[in-house]
C-alpha cells in the first residue's frame, strides 16, 4: 500500500507563508563556535570591519533564527506528522547556495516550498522523503537558497 496519498502529493509546489529570520551577533558567534570556526572575523566586529565587512559576517550554513510569534503555528512546511503511520523524521541532508553574504542585523525573509516527495523502502520499513527549498531574501535581494531533505519513517 502506497504512503503517497493525494493529500501528500498535493503538498508538492505548495507555498507556505514567508517567515522572517533574524541574524543576530550572538547567533553568529554561537554557530561559529559550535561548528569550530576560529577566525576572529566571526567574533570581533573590529576585525570584521578591518576586513571590509559592514559587521559580523554570518558563517557558512547560518541564516539566522525564525522570529517567534506566540500563538502562531510553526513556520511551514511541516516535517513530521504528514502521514499517520510515520511518526519519526530525520534530516536527510541540507545544502545552501549563497548569492550574497549575510551579516549581523540582517532580517531575511524565508519563503518555503516543498518541491518533491518520494516513497522508498528502507531497513526500517516504508518512508517518505520530502525535499523542500527555502529562498532567503534581504530587501527583495535573493541571498541564499536552502535545499533540505527530510525523511519520515
UniProtKB/TrEMBL annotation:
All copies of domain FAS1-like dehydratase, residue ranges: 10-145
Domain of life: Bacteria
A Pfam short name: FAS1_DH_region
InterPro entries, per database record: FAS1-like_DH_region (IPR039569), HotDog_dom_sf (IPR029069)
Name under which the protein is recorded: FAS1-like dehydratase domain-containing protein
Biological source species: Mycolicibacterium agri (Mycobacterium agri)
